[in-house]
Specification:
Helices cover 50% and strands 14% of the residues. The chain contains 9 helices and 5 strands, in the order E-H-E-H-H-H-E-H-E-H-H-H-E-H. Helix 1 packs across helix 9.
Length: 169
């Protein structure tokens, strides 16, 4: 099964992807943003997570080819049977994911703000500033069989929700 996880910043996308991988080690995790991070580190010596820089790089590349990141990930995953994309954000990315299981994470904004401050104490203001970027607000036309998970839970409760949703024993 191929899975893509959609949700706003600090909703738990990577956490849920890691949980799925813990339950079934056949899964590999991919990210639309991984290549962007690699470029930011290589070309701009990014340390930590500079969300503004990452967004600028991604946006500039999309100006050249709107589907650049979707095509890149599809190429990386086309031969894989068990893979997870942990950062679905845009409709054009979703459009490339025929026959993928989509998981949509929901979390109240105030919970996400607390998580941002915990995860990024040095530069949380940069992350909060970018909460209004289209990558955080693009409303996707999700398929009817989308799995919705509320991630405003303890880790143990979230693990149970993930197991139930994916029918993992």
């Amino acid at each position: 099964m191929k899975i893509a996880i959609y949700g706003p910043m600090c909703s738990g996308k990577t956490t849920v992807a890691n949980m799925i991988q813990e339950y079934d080690t056949r899964y590999s995790i991919y990210s639309f943003g991984k290549k962007i991070k690699d470029l930011a580190i290589e070309l701009f010596q990014m340390e930590g997570k500079n969300r503004s820089l990452l967004i600028n790089i991604a946006d500039k590349m999309r100006e050249i080819d709107e589907d650049v990141w979707a095509k890149y990930i599809i190429q990386k995953t086309k031969e894989k049977e068990y893979c997870i994309i942990d950062d679905l954000r845009f409709q054009n990315e979703l459009n490339y994911l025929d026959d993928w299981k989509i998981i949509c994470l929901t979390t109240p904004k105030e919970v996400r703000l607390c998580r941002i401050k915990e995860l990024y104490p040095q530069n949380y203001k940069d992350h909060i500033k970018n909460m209004d970027h289209i990558s955080e607000n693009d409303t996707l036309k999700l398929p009817e069989n989308t799995i919705y998970i509320d991630t405003n839970k303890t880790i143990e409760e979230l693990k149970e929700s993930v197991k139930l949703c994916l029918k993992i024993e």
